[in-house]
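Students often ask what a holo structure prediction actually looks like on paper. The answer is less mysterious than it sounds. You provide the chain, you provide the ligand, and the output is a string of discrete structure tokens encoding the 3D arrangement of the protein together with C2E.
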Amino acid sequence: MNSEKEEQLASKSMLDALTGIYNRKGFYTYTRELIDQHPDIEFCLIYWNIRRFKVVNNMFGWHTGDKILIQLAEAMKKELKDEVATYGRMERDNFICCVPSKVISKGKWMKVGEVSYSVGDLEYHFSCCYGLYKITNPGLSISEMGDKARIAMETVKSNYMCSYAWFDEGMWNSLLEEQKLSSDFRSAIAQKQFKVYYQPVCRAEDGKVTSAEALVRWKHPERGLISPGIFIPLFEKNGFISILDRYVWNDVCKMLRSRLDQGQEVVPISINVSRVEFYNNHLCEDIRNIVKSYQLPMDLIRIEITETAYSDNPMQVQEAVNKLHEYGFVVLMDDFGSGYSSLNILKDLPIDVLKIDMKFLDGFETSQKSAIILETVIRMAKWMQLRVVAEGVEDRKEWDYLKSMECDLVQGFYFYRPMPEEEFLKLLDQKEEEELPVHQDEFTELENSMADALRMDNYQDNSVFYSMLGGMGVYEMTDDRLEVIQVNRGYYETIYHSADGFKTAFGALNREVKEPERSILMEKCRLAREKKEVQQAQIHFQREDGVYVWLNVKVRYLSSKGKRALFNFSIENIDEMKKLEEEKVLSDYSAALMKVFDKVYRLDYETGIGEVLHTNGNDYMQLHHAYYFKDFFERYGEFIEWVDCEPSSEIIRDKGLLDQKLAQSANGSYSVKYKAHVGEKKTQLITALFFKIETQSGKEEYLCCIKRTDIAE
Ligand code: C2E
Ligand code: CA
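The corresponding structure tokens follow.
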């Protein structure tokens, strides 16, 4: 477009002010012209939408969002500049173009939607989803054609496995059906066609019912029972969901109230809160007011929030969770693991229960990876004092496995299918007769814990825990086992002076602590638990590469569940301190020897260096002077005369031979005597005593003590 044309277009408001490409009106007008002018070309419409654009805006602000839109428009311009094509922005993050079908088959068009954006050093990638419509009937209005492409796009909008779909007439029909259901909604509410079903949640240990989830069904007069999978997404789009949700919550409260009034058994019921509810500022008050209006204790109602609600709207969800807690509700994270921010959620969101759907772990028995994910999540949840409900448990095998993982709660067809209210009430009545434990069992407080501290200190590479200076981790102790189950980056830095080993997912380590540290540390852990006080121990730790390091380990008791107890530990490398300590021991030792001797040497057999540890200063070898001792007697052989003993140079040079002598002697020492002719007419009688001591770290130090006496020739 030349600038004159641009001005003309702008004046007729055909251009999008932000990106400079056509707006909806411009696109409709010029696409009509394009198609009419090229009756010989078969065209297609592509409608696209940036996935999770709202998240972009939330994360980086509108300004960044705008930049990304401009970037996309530029990419489109570049890609299509040589084609017989039109393109424009319909609204927000929705773009459209009309291109000859052959452009589609080239496949390059999808690249246009791959946007990346840099913030600092990080590059974020965004992808689009597309709807395609082949223009088989050029007689339709462009707006109708655009609708068809958009409908196709909508079918893949929330399907991350598939980025585009071609329009087909079936889509049109389901749209009509959706419209029909929408128009039936009001009368359905008025006629109470929506029925609340209840699916019991059971204790994993023994399968006993501890609570239940309310799940809505639509008893449609013409179509029979419709599952929520069909109408919930629709009502989320058109906003009816908030009416439906409140209807369900009221129904649940009504049921509970009536049971309580009749003195019958109740269990807590969890209700689902749609992700779109979080756009409503009164959500928490609405729930509270409904529960209050039935004069129910807040802990009888639990709130399920789906993970995707959080990815859409992190701030609002976080605020809501805090508020719900304040009001006394237990909050469950539904569909945990379905989104990609799962682990971040744990860090930021103070939820109480995780619900993991077994369907996200398809084939968990066969796939080791799924089993590891499940185990890690359950384990992490335990540390954080979160309960775990495994949903969708369909057979005995799954149940057994979950039990072995010490998963707390289970829900699924294997135990009970969602059932109509009457049936559920019968079940509760039976429960009452059996006098089974009531719901308090499910959420009894764990022992005094560090849950809050851990909550912010967990798993994520970028979390406080992981970036915390200093080495930290968590021990898990059972009757006879102590395992390091998680560590942070500082753990590696402390032990290896490098974080290279910190590669495993979430720092999961699962390393069993072996003797000799095991006994020491287990004892400390027991004490920490008993006294509820931090305990510490110094251990001489052998690294994987065989090198020993001295560590000061502090352990703090966190909590216990079943036979497992958790401890938070921190480590400090005390090699330097130990070295100084040992030096001090040696130094004290040799100071004592000086009462008898004139000089004390430490002999390092590895390097062959003898170092003066103490001296009375009667010769030129001063404190810390070092010399090569192994060939001493060879070097000065001509001045040395052995007295009352065998020539000993060989023995002194060779640690093995010296050790033999030390072992043979009654007092663990080896002594030699020699005359040294040290100057003209000056001779000294020298007694040298060799022995070794063992330092605290188990290292052997060889000492040589010298006594000199001047003798007359
Ligand atoms: P959800 O919250 O994840 O609920 C669990 C779904 O799993 C239910 O589907 C339940 O019937 C099904 N289920 C339970 N055990 C098993 C099993 O062992 N195997 C299999 N294959 N499925 C199992 P349902 O009732 O069709 O509900 C679907 C979704 O609709 C729910 O997923 C929830 O997100 C939504 N929903 C249901 N009722 C309500 C409601 O009152 N309000 C809102 N906002 N959403 C609702
Ligand atoms: Ca749910």
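Residues 436-467 have pLDDT under 50 and may be disordered.
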